[in-house]
Amino acid sequence: MAEKLDKVDVVVVGSGWAGGISAAELAKKGYKVVCLERGKDRSTQDFIGSKDELRYTKRHELAQDLTKETMTFRNRTEEKAIPLRKHNGYPIYDEGTGGTSVHWSGWSYRWLPFDFEIRSKIIEKYGENRIPKDMTIQDWGITYDEIEPYYDQWEKTAGISGEENPLGPKRSDDYPNPPLPSSPPIEMFKQATKDLGYHPFRMPAATISQKYENPDGETINACVICAFCSMYGCDFGAKADPIVTVLKTAQKTDNFELRNNAHVRRILHDGKKATGVLYIDPLTRQEYEQPADLVVVSAFFSGNNRLMMLSEIGEQYDPSTGEGIIGKNFTSHYTGIGGNSATGFFEDKKFNTFAGAGALGSVVDDFAGDHIDNTDTDFLHGFNMCIFQDGAAAIANNRVPQGTPYWGKEFKEKSVHYAHRHLTVSGMQGTLPRTHNYLDLDPIYKDAYGDPLLRITARFTDQERNMAKVIGEKASEIMEKMGADIVNTPPVDDEVEMTSSSINTHAAGGVIMGESPDNSAVNTYSQVWDMENLFVVGGSSFPHFGNSNPTETIGAFAYRAAEGMIKYLEGDGGLLVEAKATKNV
Questions:
Q1: Which helix (H) or strand (E) holds 328?
Q2: In whole angstroms, what is the distance from residue 527 CA to residue 560 CA?
Q3: Predicted confidence (pLDDT) at residue 370 exceeds the cutoff of 80
Q4: Are 214 and 504 in contact (CB under 8 A)?
Q5: Cα(220)–Cα(98) distance, integer angstroms
Q6: In 3-state terms, what secondary structure has residue 385?
Q7: The dihedral formed by the CA atoms of 239, 301, 550 and 35, expressed in degrees to the nearest 10
Q8: If 0-12 CB within 10 Å is exposed, 13-18 middle and 19+ buried, where does residue 93 land?
Q9: pLDDT per residue over 512-547, tens digit each?
Q10: Cα separation of 119 and 130, whole Å?
Q11: What are the pLDDT digits (tens) for 262-299?
């Protein structure tokens, strides 16, 4: 039987950026906040000296144990899903204080105004018939101008280092820090793209270029370009993450309690309002009921969806009828399709690619969002192009030209020869939702507590394949301009099926945001339409995926959500946004 604990003002599920921002803002306002984190406690001190590629990059030390809980995956509704038992390049699960953002790379982009009004903008420019019948894109119910102040707030909390995007949307202020140092590959990319008529800018980075104190008084140290960012916690405290920023801020208030090893199983409610959460300590198997006036669920896209489904909040999406919301519009920056990059091999140039940082790079946005003209393309939305130097690790750094055997004398010779004589230009594409890509509960597989696992049903379409081909062409063009002697692009297989390895950390949807409960689960404050004191915060609210990394947009919406939570608690309750007539169904 669950032990009922004393009631608090707010209970937050998850301690990543979304949960950490919510907790910090509420605690600063004097509300008693309990944050429940399923993983163990972590601090910067835990990462000192942990430069171990095998341990962290290959064996995913900081990721969740998939033997205890995972997701299942299939391509089509008539198929039986298979559990994911192996982490890919970027694991889709994480646990521990600070969440996935402890080991992120630090790429920190704003999404374009086009993204937030995507359906209206496409119809305005190309007509409604340009949208495929099974593509369920919709406006978000908010404009870039409305979310811009929260982008600025997040960038100042995280101390983002960057320079203005020549093609980017307007900003209310500059980045708080200058860009990271450059390198020869970055300069080659910048010159090549300029020569091609494009508009390069330095990658905005949460790996900080100089020692910085944020508005909450937290210090982030200067990056030393050690090359251990992606998949690693930063032992220098030079990468903005929840541990060194918002969680520290929350802890200073004396209104905040972080409970680790707390596996939340249900959102408790009476059908109209949330009353708290039910969680279990995996070490003792004791269950607890934590009552609260306000419930914030910020447990990554997968945890948010699964908790909503297990708690029977909202109507489950049905792909056969299009009815229901929860689980709808699953998207990810899919991998494994080919294209999307070009690797150049140089005979007479050698690069110090062993040095780097997670977000040390340069980007062009000339093909991003609506910067690309989709009139004659066989896809919608667009992509960015970039080069980044995150550190050529010893195990992974054995690129060889296509056609080289993957074993034997020739492979060994070329692997050594090209170890620091190759560079890669890559692209990241916008991902648009389809009726057949969705989330629900698996009827067969369960976790260690007997609860159904989350199931992903998704497959590639010509939208992804066609864009990947164009990205490969543009990447090759840039790499040739950079002077590579050999340029290789992974071929796009028109018959390749999506696999579980195609899904990564950049995944979203299922508890989507919109203008009305008719087409969304949450409003623009991440407040659940059907349960006013429940806020579901994170990438799960994204109706589609833009063509750059999601963390900054998650952070911006977390600040907006926190503002809404405070308004709700200080007011007389009720919904913070009035539902509009639905335009996007």
A1: strand 328-332
A2: 11
A3: yes
A4: no
A5: 15
A6: strand
A7: -40
A8: buried
A9: 999 999 999 999 999 999 999 999 999 999 999 999
A10: 10
A11: 999 999 999 999 999 999 999 999 999 999 999 999 99
Distance between CA 535 and CA 565 in Å, rounded? 8
Our CA angle for 201, 205, 206, nearest 5°, is 165
Residue 400 and residue 151: Cα distance in Å, rounded? 40
**Predicted local distance difference test score (pLDDT) of residue 582:** 65
Q: 263-269 and 256-259: which strand pairing?
A: unpaired
Position of tokens 């070009």? Answer: 342
User: Whole-angstrom Cα distance, residue 503 to residue 481?
Assistant: 32
Residue 15 near residue 242, CB atoms below 8 Å: yes
The sign one gets for the Cα dihedral 523, 528, 533, 537 is: negative
Q: What token pair was written down for 469?
A: 């081909």
Catalytic residue among 87, 381, 422, 506: 506
Q: Is 506 a catalytic residue?
A: yes
Between strands 383-388 and 3-4, the pairing is unpaired
What pLDDT was estimated at residue 583?
55
Q: Taking phi first (over 0 means left), then psi (-120 to 50 degrees means alpha), and beta for anything else, what does residue 99 get?
A: left
Burial of 392 (0-12, 13-18, 19+ CB in 10 A): buried
Q: How far apart are CA 536 and CA 22, in angstroms?
A: 11
d(Cα 430, Cα 553) in Å, to the nearest integer? 14
Distance CA 543, CA 434 (A): 11
Which residue has 């039987």 as its token pair? 1
Question: Based on the number of CB atoms within 10 Å of its own CB, is 124 exposed (0-12), middle (13-18) or buried (19 or more)?
Answer: exposed
pTM of the model: 0.97
How far apart, in Å, are the Cα atoms of 187 and each of 34, 190, 191, 222? 47, 5, 6, 22
Tokens representing 422?
A: 């190759």
In DSSP notation, 231-295 reads: TS--TTS-B--TTTTHHHHHHTTTSEEEE-S-EEEEEEE-SSSEEEEEEE-TTT--EEEEEEEEE
Answer for the pair 316, 327: CB distance below 8 angstroms, yes or no: yes
Question: What is the residue type of 431?
Answer: T
Closest among 296, 207, 216 to 253, alpha carbons compared: 216
pLDDT (mean) for 571-580:
88
Q: Give yes or no for residue 442 having a pLDDT over 80.
A: yes
The pLDDT score that the predictor gives to residue 503 is 84
- In 3D space, the residue among 534, 530, 540, 527 whose CA is nearest the CA of residue 577 turns out to be 527
Look up residue 380 and give its DSSP letter: S
Q: Residue 359: name the closest of 151, 204, 550, 506 by CA.
A: 204
**Residue 318: alpha-carbon gap to chain centroid:** 25
Are the beta carbons of 478 and 385 closer than 8 angstroms?
yes
Helix axes 184-195, 462-481, angle to 10 degrees: 100
For residues 71 and 305, the answer to whether their CB atoms sit within 8 Å is no
Distance CA 492, CA 495 (A): 9
How far apart CA 301 and CA 505 sit, in angstroms, is 9
What is the spatial distance between Cα 556 and Cα 564, in angstroms, rounded to a whole number? 13
How confident is the model at residue 584, as a pLDDT? 54
